Amino acid sequence: MTITIGITVLGLVGLALALFMEKRWRLTYNIEYLFIAGLLVMAFYGDWVSTKIYTAYQEDLRASETLSGTLVSDDDRDEKFDRILTVVTFQWGFAFITEENELSRNAAIVMPGERVLFRVVTNDVIHGFNIPVAGITAEIDPGDVRELWIRAPQTPGKYLIQCVNYCGVGHTQMKAWLVVEGDVPTAEMNIGENNNGA
Amino acid sequence: MAHDLDHKRTGGAPHWKPEDILGTISLKTLLFSDDYRHIALKGILTAFVMLALGGAFAMIFRTELAVPGAQFLGARGYMTLMTLHGMIMVFGFLIPLTISVCYYMLPKVLGNDRLEWPKVAHWSYWVLIVAAVLLVIGRPDFTWTAYAPMSLRVGGSLVWMGHLAILLVAISEFLAGFVLWRNAIAGVTASGGWKMLPMMGWASAVVGLLLIVATIPLGMIGLGLFTDWMEISAWFDPARGGSVKLFLYIFWTYGHPAVYLPFIPAIAILYTLMPRILGRPMWSYWSGVVAFLLLGLFAMPIGPHHFQPLYTISGWYERMIQIFTLLVFIPSVLHVFNWIATLWSDPIPASARASVPFKFMVSSIAFIIYGGATAYVNAQIATDSDFIHNTYWIPAHFHAMFFGFAGQMAFAGFYYLFPYFTGRMYNQKMANSHFWLWQIGLFTKITMMFVAGYAYFPRWVYDYLPLQEWMMPQMMITAAGYLIGLGFIIFVYNVAVSARRGQKAPNEPWPVEQDGAVPSAAPAE
Asked: Which chain B residues have a beta carbon less than 8 Å from that of A120?
């Protein structure tokens, strides 16, 4: 994001100077090669940073292959997570199924700081799965099982889960809550207190 | 530094003379004449009707979104307006407007004073009109991306009209591609070879080819959805053995190049106007040509960055898409570099500073920088998987590129052409009001969309939770939308009045004057 802001400012300042500065420059063509070299470095830096972050995220998952091209071992993967939830997305809602086959509609109940694995599927159309507080956004296609993990917030409360792919007229209502339990039982939580956690 | 030949390459033919075409034309001539000016004007005026329609739809749903809670639009009504807004703005306004302005300028720039294959251009126009009529009657609510299988299960009994409209849009754009390609080739002959071809000729060649190649998958999508809906086939419906991924890969093979369909002609308009308004050639001819070719080359393979099922395939393929998407940044930046270097090389003439086309041009460059820089984070899988994918961040990006850059550049072209087809000048005060209302409106709208997207505001919702980080941006986007609407009303009034009563245009409506003399576009009396 810093680089993006930097490019924007640089470009706009360059444009403003070209318009309003009294001094004029006729740039040599060679300067363009330097410019392209800079852009290439920027492009490959972007690729490197993104790959590093996303590969680190994927390392805990049973992905067939990460962005770095390294195969991920399945060994003791399940031990890495405090809770595994299967998420069925449908027109228009989310069903969360625990490992004990307990089903909760539109509420994923977890404990503070837990590492939670979501196995997300859809039973009709393409849906989205976004948890703002965890900074994850994913697209789920029919026939796929998509695995995503988060670390639950330390602060008990309700955090938004929403569909971000248009999936039909009920798309707006396709929301659920990540309920982080604390001393207050879930049933007594303030239902009116919304928090997208972003 | 510019090459001597660059004067020729900008198309300095002396037949750019103001004429009152609009005031003397009959409706029959406007609709059916083979004269390139009539074909172009027909396209331009129709695009403005489409803009009015798509803009009115936006005003309605933006009013709904100003505050949380359902006000007066239900989900179905909202999504119908949203779908029509997206489709009409892209297929009916932006692509046809930029191409029509090119239709007007290309024969003048090339010096051959005629558009090759005018009948094909007519067919392209009429097929698009049928598509627009089908869309408005069918009122689909599946968004412009029409994702299957959702688009097969929504929209009521007339949804098939939306599917057919997609097919017709593909045919219309396919035909326009042939017209542009054929005229680029004619331009090569007229100019004396590729090396002498004006930038608009190069742009026509690239976008022509892109249209021909990229619209085939769009046609497959329209036809596939239509036959799937009729239950003749099951290409895209997984419940009947079809594949969603097949849909996604085919759709985005068109969907990403679609971004360049208005983008490249808009760049071509800029390359045509800038040397004329500044009175000097572009900083580099070949830098622009190479950037056009690279844009065309990179446009096709990077479509999959628009969706996420890539995670199910090889990580290396996914990574290559990321790398190519990051690299496509380079040709766009080369264009911007070229423009700024041209601006910087010599003093800006006083006549340029006063002219409205120049103002829109400079603003377009600012918006391509503002919106384009965000492409750097959009391209990265890590950030896409965080706050970008299908949040308001995406419409912020494409409104900056589509409207902020391509749309405004087309308006720069229109203002520039105005004296050539009316024989009169527009009213400067009203044009300035239009300009400033749009700058304030567009900047506010796009910035607030970025802010909302960064706070994970989802796309395609007619109602939302009353969260502080969502409410303020939504209210401001709506207010900005009204400013843009007001600017457009002033523009329409200005065009209508000035075309009949504006000051008579001099023989050279855009003289380059360094000394701060009275600008050519003086207020109408």
From this structure: none
